[in-house]
Amino acid sequence: MGGFRGHPWRICLHAFQTLAFGHYLFNYQYSFGWGYGPSMLPTFLVDGDIIIFDRHHRRGRDVRVGDCVAYHIPVSPDEDGVKRVIGMPGDYILMNSPGASSDRMLQVPKGHCYIVGDNLPWSRDSRDFGPLPLALIKGKAIAKGQISGWHPWKWFKPLENSLTTDVPS
Amino acid sequence: MSKWFQFRSNPRVRRFGEFSWYLFVFASWLPVAVLANDHFFEITRVNGPSMYPFLNPDKDRSLTRDCVWTWKYDAHDKLARGMIVIFWSPFNPETRVIKRIVGLEGDVIRTKPPYPVATVQVPPGHVWVEGDGDVTQDSNTYGPIAKALIIGKVTHIIWPLNRVGRVNWEEYAAEIRRNS
């Protein structure tokens, strides 16, 4: 290997370049995070689930209704959340939970999506802060799991979008 | 002499090896550039009339566009009225928009025509942004924007050369207070 000499400055430089490469992988390819909170039961546990995100779906690229997405919570900018998309721009959605006192509908505005947690009574989502700008989406959840046992290939289970069209269009 | 050694010492292969090494050295700096561009600074070209006359004052006379220096570290924090910020458009997640912050969370804003109600309070985690010009699509169209949409703060104008310098947004803070 030419160019790599053991000088401390050079080692620092290469460490920095490696960190920057990790930042690129984590922000533009795939990342992981720990889910916390009851809002996505039963898809994600209250504590301890590791979720893998596909960052190619950042800013809502190719996100479909039924996907779980990680997003910046609009009302608290430094926190992230994971919720399920139930409406994309132009879709008509129920603004509150089914069976709530109001059954108003809303057309999701341009560039926005409507997200709710799977655990409807224990979730803070679009029903509180309204449609979410797609630009706040960080990535799509593609797998979940826990590190337990000696077989890394058994740790994670892929998450599939269970919404499929019965009638071929 | 192994076959492999013969292959490696072939001058053509050696030249290609050197070239790919320099390519690798170049590529190893790309993630550093991405990191700097994501979290520290960016040079942005401003299109459109929304910040007229502060930016693009010659929009009707020339085709050149202003270039600005954007500081991106801690973009969601230490926001103030009068600052010029760049953020992702709420209506189109792939376009960036440049506007001036007019209200912070909790402020009561007197809105302008396209907005459906006369006054509005800015919700937590949001800011109210408006363009300086008359031709602008801003919070009066799409409402308060989430702070997490903000990419960075415009700190300096770097092109054209006759207006190079720091953006004195503090002067505008006083103006906003006077007008409201």
Task: Map the helices and strands.
The complex is a heterodimer of chains A (169) and B (180).
Chain A: H1 8-29, E1 30-36, E2 47-54, E3 68-72, E4 80-87, E5 92-94, E6 105-107, E7 112-116, H2 126-129, E8 132-133, E9 137-145, E10 156-158
Antiparallel strand pairs in A: 1-2, 2-9, 3-4, 3-9, 4-7, 5-6, 7-8, 9-10
Chain B: H1 3-9, H2 11-39, E1 41-45, E2 67-71, E3 84-88, E4 96-103, E5 108-110, E6 119-121, E7 126-130, H3 139-142, E8 145-146, E9 150-159, E10 165-166, H4 169-179
Antiparallel strand pairs in B: 1-2, 2-9, 3-4, 3-9, 4-7, 5-6, 7-8, 9-10
Description:
- Chain B: Belongs to the peptidase S26 family. IMP2 subfamily.
- Chain B: It holds the Pfam family Peptidase_S26.
- The complex is a heterodimer of chains A (169) and B (180).
- Chain A is α+β, with helices and mostly antiparallel strands and 169 residues long.
- Chain A has a domain at 30-85 and 114-158: Ribbon (Umud Fragment, subunit A).
- Helix content of chain A is 15%, strand content 31%.
- Chain A has two helices and ten strands; from the N terminus they run H-E-E-E-E-E-E-E-H-E-E-E.
- Chain A has helices at residues 8-29, 126-129, and strands spanning 30-36, 47-54, 68-72, 80-87, 92-94, 105-107, 112-116, 132-133, 137-145, 156-158.
- In chain A, strands 1, 2, 3, 4, 7, 8, 9 and 10 form an eight-stranded antiparallel beta sheet that branches. In chain A, strands 5-6 form a two-stranded antiparallel sheet.
- The mean pLDDT of chain A is 90.
- Chain B has 180 residues and is of the alpha+beta class.
- Chain B has two domains: 3-38; 41-179, Umud Fragment, subunit A, CATH 2.10.109.10.
- Helices cover 28% and strands 27% of the residues of chain B.
- Chain B has helices at residues 3-9, 11-39, 139-142, 169-179; strands at residues 41-45, 67-71, 84-88, 96-103, 108-110, 119-121, 126-130, 145-146, 150-159, 165-166.
- In chain B, strands 1, 2, 3, 4, 7, 8, 9 and 10 form an eight-stranded antiparallel beta sheet that branches.
